[in-house]
């Protein structure tokens, strides 16, 4: 349980959302306010309560968004207002994370706090490049070092001492790489010593390059690497021989936006297992509707759309103090999930019935078939965090494509297009022929011919869905500009 008025200084891990600690995640899930940094994976924000307040405390290298002092003030302000606050920081909060200053400030104001360590990039990025930072064969010491010097308040590195250590992970060191290399060589390291630079480690944008101390500056320049990156110097780097276990996953590098309907969670899990990082959009907040004026006795069949509808039904029976055995109705399940849920209540649903009066319990009228009365079970609303996350993903240019799982989801897509024109540049994947048909019929903005041979996502999804997946090109803004010459306006007019 989180305490009101307490600040939790939590390490979010280096990027991969799974690398936050169990304790950190539990705090995040319960927090009322979350102040998050730039290097925190935005998808972690979807773990928060639906009504949590999310505040960006990120700093882009050139633009100071919220200054450190302002972050201190915000933490104090929220805590004094009695909120439970998570201050979510990239990696480990105590490794170049200024947690010392933040904790001291909280102490000054008598605000209770906790520190939850995280996995630091200097260890995690090499691990995802397949390299341990210590290894019996490659020495006995490992150091972390800051590769940049911010101002005169910060200490200069002791290059002589540092150079004596076996493996060194430099943080924030890309810009300063020439100085780092020069100092290491001056202090006895060999020009032929192997070096790894790992950019955006543990994320779908991870990129690893290997060179020697003497050549790394040119290589990094040639490959256009920039921060955030870890520079790992030491013989252990010779173990990197190409793509790592992580970089080799079939869908490594894919960050699709997956429109969120009933099918999507399952698809998302499969994609994750293959190395992709899907963003389910939007996140739904569901609340059970109050007991309706309904005579369950009246129906000869009660059909359930999904597992949640089963749960709500039993809550309603409980409220009415009805014993399930009093109901004469035949129960049917519209999906495997509903069937499994009924099984867990000791009910074996039938495949169908020939009852005259039939009732469908579902959370959307679109599921209702002819011959059924419809009773809604839950109210679904979009959670605000999704937009915040989407904005961050767009800022970092993380998204690689959009997956449209169902015909119903096409509506969500159109909404997204009008709110976020930038998304129209991404290609679409339709998970069934009818979705593709629907997309093509919408306003004919899409082109059918996309060369997807080099696109692992389509191939992989195709195997999973038995060849049902089709790519439909986005890039609508671009083409409509060419044809009409009126730009954005033409686009809005179409929708
Ligand atoms: N507290 C963080 C470090 C913050 S300093 C931690 O423990 O990891 C910011 C620097 O960390 C970046 O300039 C970069 O050098 C490094 N860094 C953070 N995340 C990274 C990532 N995913 N991949 C590579 N380097 C990363």
Automatic annotation (TrEMBL):
Coiled coil: none annotated. PROSITE patterns: SUMT_2. Its EC number is 2.1.1.107. One of its GO terms (biological process) is methylation. Residues 6-216 form the Tetrapyrrole methylase domain. The keyword Metal-binding does not apply. Keywords: Lyase, Methyltransferase, Porphyrin biosynthesis, S-adenosyl-L-methionine, Transferase. One of its GO terms (molecular function) is uroporphyrin-III C-methyltransferase activity. It holds the Pfam family TP_methylase. Belongs to the precorrin methyltransferase family. This is uroporphyrinogen-III C-methyltransferase. It comes from Shouchella xiaoxiensis.
């Amino acid at each position: 349980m989180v305490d009101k008025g307490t600040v939790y200084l939590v390490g979010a891990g280096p990027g991969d959302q799974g690398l936050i600690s169990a304790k950190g995640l539990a705090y995040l899930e319960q927090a009322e306010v979350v102040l998050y940094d730039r290097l925190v994976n935005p998808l972690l924000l979807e773990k928060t309560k639906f009504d949590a307040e999310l505040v960006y405390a990120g700093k882009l290298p050139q633009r100071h968004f919220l200054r450190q002092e302002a972050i201190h003030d915000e933490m104090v302000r929220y805590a004094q207002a009695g909120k439970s606050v998570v201050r979510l920081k990239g990696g480990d909060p105590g490794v170049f994370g200024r947690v010392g200053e933040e904790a001291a400030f909280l102490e000054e104001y008598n605000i209770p706090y906790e520190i939850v360590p995280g996995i630091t990039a200097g260890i995690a990025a090499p691990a995802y490049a397949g390299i341990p930072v210590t290894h019996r064969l490659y020495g006995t010491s490992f150091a972390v070092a800051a590769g940049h010097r911010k101002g005169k308040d910060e200490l200069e590195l002791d290059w002589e001492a540092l150079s004596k250590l076996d493996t060194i992970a430099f943080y924030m060191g890309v810009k300063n790489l020439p100085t780092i290399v020069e100092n290491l060589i001056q202090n006895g390291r060999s020009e032929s010593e192997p070096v790894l630079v790992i950019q955006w480690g543990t994320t779908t944008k991870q990129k690893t390059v290997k060179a020697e101390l003497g050549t790394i500056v040119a290589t990094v320049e040639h490959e256009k690497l920039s921060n955030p990156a870890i520079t790992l110097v030491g013989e252990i780097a010779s173990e990197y021989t190409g793509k790592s276990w992580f970089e080799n996953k079939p869908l490594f590098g894919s960050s699709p936006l997956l429109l969120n309907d009933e099918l999507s969670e399952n698809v998302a899990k499969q994609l994750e297992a293959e190395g992709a990082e899907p963003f389910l959009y939007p996140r739904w907040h569901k609340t059970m509707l109050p007991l309706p004026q309904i005579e369950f006795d009246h129906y000869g069949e009660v059909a359930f759309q999904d597992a949640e509808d089963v749960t709500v039904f039993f809550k309603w029976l409980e409220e009415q103090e009805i014993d399930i055995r009093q109901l004469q109705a035949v129960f049917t399940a519209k999906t495997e999930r509903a069937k499994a849920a009924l099984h867990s209540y000791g009910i074996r649903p039938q495949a169908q019935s020939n009852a005259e009066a039939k009732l469908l319990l579902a959370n959307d009228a679109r599921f209702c078939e002819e011959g059924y009365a419809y009773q809604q079970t839950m109210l679904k609303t979009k959670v605000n965090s999704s937009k915040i996350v989407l904005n961050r993903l767009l800022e970092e240019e993380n998204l690689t494509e959009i997956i449209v799982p169902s015909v119903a989801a096409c509506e969500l897509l159109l909404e997204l297009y009008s709110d976020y024109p930038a998304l129209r540049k991404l290609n679409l994947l339709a998970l069934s022929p009818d979705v593709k048909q629907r997309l093509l019929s919408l306003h004919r903005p899409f082109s059918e011919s996309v060369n997807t041979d080099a696109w692992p996502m389509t191939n992989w999804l195709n195997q999973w869905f038995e060849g049902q997946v089709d790519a439909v090109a986005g890039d609508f803004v671009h083409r409509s500009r060419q044809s009409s010459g009126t730009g954005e306006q033409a686009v809005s007019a179409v929708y």
